[in-house]
Design goal:
About 5% of the residues have low confidence. About 55% of the residues lie in helices and about 5% in strands. The protein has a two-stranded antiparallel sheet with strand order 1-2. β1 and β2 form a beta hairpin. α4 runs antiparallel to α5. The protein folds into 2 domains: about 140 residues, Butyryl-CoA Dehydrogenase, subunit A, domain 3 (Up-down Bundle); about 30 residues, no CATH class. The chain contains 7 helices and 2 strands, in the order αββαααααα.
């Protein structure tokens, strides 16, 4: 259940912040000024033009959502409170912007995009509530990658036995290592073993 709640919170915050960023960059107001003897002057305003800080709150929501994955405990719950405030700020800002907006000839867009911002802010706030209430119970992203420190944990395998020395070859000892290239320092022992009729590679 904790993983499901974490997933719901992350998706809600991401979707809400993304919806806000998209809606706030759409045209909310279109004003047309008629000029005698000249073409009409058309002025468009986006949500970011009306309330510039809506973009900032949406970016804060995105950053806070990413931080939820990398933190744990009380820090994660504090981020939940921050997301609640960001979501509430987005919703309230969109309502205030719409109330003070002269939509002009924007038509339905003057209502659709502010409402979309309100919904986005609400989604961010819901995700923040989940994080503030249950965030300390969610698993941390890095926990699965931490190395085990349990006593008795098998140590990494060693690189292998040391190669037998040339002195051992001179006394007729058997080399159990796999055959390999003879080092220059072992050339004398190699030829001495051949003179005695021994196989120096064994």
């Amino acid at each position: 259940m904790t993983r499901r709640g974490q997933l719901v919170a992350i998706v809600a915050c991401l979707a809400g912040a993304a919806l806000t960023l998209y809606a706030v960059t759409r045209t909310w107001s279109v004003r047309v000024e008629q000029r005698t003897g000249l073409s009409d002057l058309r002025t468009e305003q986006t949500g970011a033009d009306v309330q510039p800080w809506l973009v900032g709150l949406a970016v804060v929501a995105l950053a806070g959502t990413g931080a939820l994955l990398a933190t744990r405990g009380a820090v994660r719950r504090a981020l939940g409170v921050l997301l609640i405030m960001a979501g509430a700020g987005i919703a309230v800002g969109a309502v205030l912007a719409r109330a003070a907006l002269d939509a002009g000839e924007a038509g339905a867009a003057a209502a659709i995009w502010p409402v979309a911002c309100v919904l986005g802010g609400a989604a961010v706030a819901v995700g923040g509530v989940l994080a503030a209430r249950h965030g300390h119970l969610w698993p941390a992203m890095s926990s699965r990658y931490e190395r085990s420190t349990v006593p008795g944990h098998p140590a990494p395998a060693s690189a292998g036995p040391e190669p037998q020395s040339a002195a051992g070859l001179e006394h007729g000892e058997t080399n159990t290592d796999p055959p390999g290239p003879v080092k220059p320092t072992d050339n004398r022992a190699f030829w001495d073993a051949l003179d005695r009729g021994e196989d120096p590679t064994r």
